[in-house]
Design goal:
This protein is α/β, with parallel strands linked by helices and 304 residues long. The chain is 45% helix and 12% strand. It has two domains: 101 residues, no CATH class; 177 residues, Rossmann fold (3-Layer(aba) Sandwich), CATH 3.40.50.
Length: 304
């Protein structure tokens, strides 16, 4: 087994252990420099004298078989230390140690998230489609969460414009939520990218969607919030984007809510009053974004 493959399998074996903190495992691997070494140490600490080289090797082999089974169903599995793991995600505290994907995993440094309410208004849908269309025509990747409402409108508009779109989902990669977006999810996997931080068959949970928002914020270079109530996941994403040092664009529709007005004076927040102003602000953000494959403008990365 190649070293890189064995390391990825060792990470999966570590994450499969009960009662572990995924973030602490990632930090341990960064400190030690090897997932296999962290796994062997963990076995000694928990099993004492009964742990041996064979125990770690057996767990790695089992994890390798599991990864191969996923890959046989066209699921891409990437560890945070793999070269083609999205570099921008290494810059956030919520970095997923492992990602599951369907589609083309390519550098997406020029990517903007377009998010908003599931129960979208007609104006909200119109704005989301206009923004996504404009971005797609400029060669910018449109990122959203595949929820109904604003997310669906953004994905569909990007696809109709012939652009690239990335869906960051709150379930396992083999799940469809909502079920009505099954065809859309499969189409995005064919021509763009579907991304998940959860085990492939994981169901939706109350916690999984805020976690998804953190990854979506980290993946995108900026977030446009089209509509979002006080309990919306888009509101969570706006807060996370500020923590990640990413610009946030709030529309006039959002500013009717107290949470949005309290955000307005934060550095990096842009409040726009109409479609023309929104597109001008987005264009300004794009002008400051990297045009190549570098990470200029992003926070320093956490690397092994």
């Amino acid at each position: 087994m190649e070293k890189s493959v064995a390391e990825r399998a060792a990470l999966v074996a570590l994450l499969r252990r009960t009662g572990v903190s995924w973030s602490e495992i990632a930090l341990d691997i960064q400190d030690v420099g090897s997932a296999s070494s962290v796994l062997r140490r963990a076995l000694v600490e928990t099993d004492g004298l009964f742990a041996d080289e064979g125990s770690a090797d057996a767990l790695i082999e089992a994890a390798f078989a599991e990864i191969e089974a996923w890959q046989s169903h066209a699921i891409i599995v990437r560890a945070f230390f793999d070269d083609d793991y999205p570099q921008q995600l290494r810059a956030i505290r919520e970095m997923p140690p492992v990602l599951f994907a369907r589609g083309a995993l390519v550098p997406d440094f020029r990517a903007i998230a377009v998010v908003g309410s599931r129960e979208a208004s007609a104006d909200g849908v119109r704005i989301a489609k206009a923004v996504a269309t404009s971005l797609a025509r400029q060669g910018v990747t449109v990122v959203s969460g595949l929820a109904k409402g604003i997310d669906t409108a953004a994905h569909e508009a990007a696809l109709e414009a012939g652009g690239r779109t990335v869906a960051v989902i709150g379930t396992g990669i083999r799940r469809y939520y909502p079920a009505t977006n099954r065809r859309l999810q499969d189409h995005i996997a064919d021509v763009g990218l579907v991304l998940s931080q959860f085990w492939p068959d994981a169901p939706p949970t109350k916690q999984s969607f805020p976690m998804r928002n953190a990854v979506m914020s980290g993946y995108a270079a900026a977030t446009v919030v089209v509509e979002a109530g006080a309990k919306s996941g888009a509101r969570i994403q706006a807060r996370l984007a500020l923590q990640h040092g990413r610009p946030v664009v709030l529309t006039n529709q959002v500013m009717q809510h107290e949470w949005a007005r309290s955000f307005a004076d934060n550095p990096g927040v842009h409040v726009v009053r109409g479609m023309s102003e929104l597109l001008d602000v987005v264009d300004g953000i794009l002008d400051r974004m990297p045009t190549g494959t570098g990470m200029e403008g992003f926070p320093d990365l956490v690397t092994l």
